[in-house]
C-alpha cells in the first residue's frame, strides 16, 4: 500500500465515524418532522422566527449565541422562500429522479396518473409517486424488460390501485419477465405492439413501436405518441420511446412519415431514448424537432450517459434539454405561453425564453 493510499484511508476514518452517527441519529424516532411544502409552511416558519426573536429579547444570551441562532434561521428560511412547494400545481409530465433508469409520470388529475417505466429501485419511484400523492394508476407501461425500467415496479404497486400493465412482446431477459408476472399478481398484463390506441383521462395514447422486427430488448421498447387536446390551447404531443436505438428509430421514422393518422412528426417533448446514449439516429431527432427534451439518467453513471454528441445535437436544434442527473426530478407544465420546465430546486424555464 502506498503512502498516499494509507493517508487517504486514515483521513477517511473520522468521516466514517461522522457518517455512522448521522445514520444512527436519522433512524431515531422523530428524527425528521414533516413540514408543509407550501406558502403556509413559509408563514409558519416566519411566525416561529418572530417568536424566537421576541424570546431572545427576554432571555439574556451571549452575542455569539445570537449570531449562531441567526445563521441557523437564515439557512432554513431562505431555501424555503426560494423553492416553495413541489411539484408545481399544473404539472403534466414528471420525470422522477430514479438514478440510472426511467420513471415517468403522466398527470391525470385527482391523484391519478399513468406511469411509464418504474426505474431500478422500488424506493425511488415509490417516493416520487408518494410526493405526487398518486393513489390510482389506470395504466403502467413498461417499455421493455431491462432492470433499469422494471425493477422499481413493486414501488408503483405498493399502496396504489393499478388497473393494467403493458409490456413488450419480447420477454427478455426471462428473469425480469417472470418477476413482472409475479409482482403483477392479479393485475392484467398485456403484450402490446404498434397500432394500439386508447383514451385515458383526456389523453390519447398510441403505440408506434414495436412493429414485429425487433431484435433486442432495447429495440423492442414500446414507443408511444401521447396527445392531449384542449379547447384553450394547442394540442400537446409527447413522444416516449424507451431505449430505442438508431436502427429502430430509422425504421420508425419512415413508418411515421407515411402513416395517414399520425400526422406531422413534430412533437412538443421527447424523452430521449436510452438515457441519451450515442446510439441515436440524427434524422429522427431532426424530424421530431421537439421544444423540450428530457434525459432520464443517473449521475456519474458507468455508461457515460448522456453522450456529449447527443446533447450537442439537441442544442444545435434549439431544444431545451432537462437532465435528471443535473436537476433531479423534472416537471413539465403546459401553460398559456407554452411549455414550462420546472426542475426541482431550480428556476423554471418556459417557452417564452426560446
TrEMBL record:
Keywords: Membrane, Transmembrane, Transmembrane helix. Residues 100-186 form the Metallo-beta-lactamase domain. InterPro entries: Competence_DNA_uptake, Metallo-B-lactamas, RibonucZ/Hydroxyglut_hydro. The keyword Acyltransferase does not apply. The chain crosses the membrane at residues 38-56, 68-86. It holds the Pfam family Lactamase_B. The keyword Isomerase does not apply. This is ComEC family competence protein.
